[in-house]
Design brief:
CATH superfamily of the largest domain: Dehydroquinate synthase-like - alpha domain
GO molecular function, one term: metal ion binding
Shape: globular
Number of domains: 2
Bound molecules: fe (ii) ion
Helix content: 40-55%
Strand content: 5-15%
Largest sheet: 6 strands, parallel
Protein name: Iron-containing alcohol dehydrogenase
Keywords: NAD, Oxidoreductase
CATH topology of the largest domain: Dehydroquinate synthase-like, alpha domain
Structural class: alpha/beta
Number of helices: 14
Family: Belongs to the iron-containing alcohol dehydrogenase family.
Organism: Methanocella arvoryzae (strain DSM 22066 / NBRC 105507 / MRE50)
CATH class of the largest domain: Mainly Alpha
Length: about 400
């Protein structure tokens, strides 16, 4: 007997996480519990300036734990930065990693961890389940409400020589503990709030329509859509409002649990390819592509997109099929525009002659596998052209 689609075999992986105001101050206690003798703190300059790294290192000091801080991490973390971090980690004799920041320091910390135990170049782990040995204990403290790198089985690393963004997917990349403290998002500037929030929205949408979704990931994905629709613009307008900030952090957590287990789709595959070439912020790349990918996918899983529209507050009963489709696509486009992401890929430096190369990379990305409608190379090229 063929099982109902909703009950196909699915696993669900999540790190232990502590959600709530003040959770970052538990970093020292968790590092001690992992048996740390010296902690390698991975962060970036913006997070140091905002004061969050200091709060984390203070909590390590309270536990009498020595540490060193590595902050040479680009907005799209690079393979050479990972390898440089590994060298420092080894020289300093560290045995636990604490990552403080957005997706970039966290992904870099994941790379440092697995390279330190596997003794191979980080780019050799590209793809699904390519990491034989787990890294040292990893504690993550996210400071944006969007990437969910602190929960996910993903790490995205840019290979500088080939200008390629590689997706690494493995259970070995799930952190051991995530301390999710909404207070850390209070210092995010408006633009970062917008693009990280839209990244979380894209995670929720792509995980929900993914052909690897499950009833469990669906719950998280749809609730994330609800939370983001009703809190993102408010968090941008009133950055000091803790309710909006906390709701966005919760949305990011839920979207992260969904996509880490259901994976993503063509928007992320195409955004990864774009990010490797133009260094456009990841959330912005997604936002410029999402509506075109949704338009392409819609007829493959219309009930799923209708549920997303309803989670966004639309009353789809008053429309016929085509009207409903239009309303859902419009609602997503409006949300993105209201967040201040406008314009085209060309305005970000993408040229028409780049499209064949971008498309060849995107079609090979692991996120393409779970897109609900199969895409040919020509389909990918057409979508890039529409977004140009
Ligand atoms: Fe993303």
């Amino acid at each position: 007997m063929t099982p109902h689609k909703s009950y196909e075999l699915r696993k669900f992986v999540s790190p232990e996480f502590v959600f709530g105001s003040g959770s970052l101050r538990l970093a020292g206690r968790y590092a001690t519990n992992f048996g740390a003798s010296k902690v390698f703190v991975v962060t970036d300059k913006g997070v140091i300036e905002a004061g969050w790294t200091r709060q984390v290192t203070d909590s390590l000091e309270e536990e009498d734990l020595p540490f060193i801080v590595f902050s040479n991490v680009s907005p799209n973390p690079r393979s050479d930065e990972v390898m440089q971090g590994v060298k420092l980690y080894r020289e300093a004799g560290c045995d636990v990693i604490v990552a403080v920041g957005g997706g970039s320091p966290i992904d870099c910390a994941k790379g440092i961890g697995i390279v330190s135990t596997n003794n191979r170049d980080v780019m050799e782990f590209e793809g699904v389940d390519q990491i034989p040995i787990p890294g040292p204990p990893l504690i993550c403290i996210p400071t944006t409400a969007g990437s969910s790198a602190d929960l996910s089985q993903f790490a995205i690393i840019t290979d500088l020589p080939s200008h390629r963004k590689a997706a690494l997917v493995s259970k070995m990349l799930v952190p051991d503990t995530s301390l999710i403290d909404p207070d850390t998002t209070l210092t995010m500037p408006k633009e970062l709030t917008a693009i990280t929030g839209l990244d979380a929205f894209t995670h929720a949408v792509e995980a929900y329509v993914s052909n690897a979704s499950s009833p469990i990931t669906d719950l998280f994905a749809l609730n994330a859509v609800r939370l983001i629709t009703s809190n993102l613009l408010k968090a941008i307008d009133e950055p000091d409002n803790m309710d909006y900030r906390s709701n966005m952090m919760l949305a990011s957590l839920e979207a992260g649990l969904a996509f880490s287990n259901a994976s993503l789709g063509a928007t992320h595959a195409m955004a990864h390819s774009l990010g490797g070439v133009e260094d456009t912020p990841h959330g912005e790349s997604n936002s410029l592509l999402l509506k075109y990918v949704m338009e392409f996918n819609y007829d493959a899983v219309p009930q799923k997109y209708e549920a997303i529209g309803e989670a966004m507050g639309l009353d789809l009963k008053k429309y016929d099929y085509a009207g409903g489709k239009n309303a859902v696509l419009e609602a997503v486009a409006k949300l993105i525009e209201a967040c201040g992401v406008r314009g085209t890929l060309a305005q970000r430096g993408v040229r028409r002659e780049d499209i064949p190369r971008l498309s060849r990379q995107a079609i090979k990305d692991v996120c393409m596998v779970t897109n609900p409608r199969p895409m040919s190379l020509e389909d990918v090229e057409r979508i890039y052209e529409r977004a140009l």
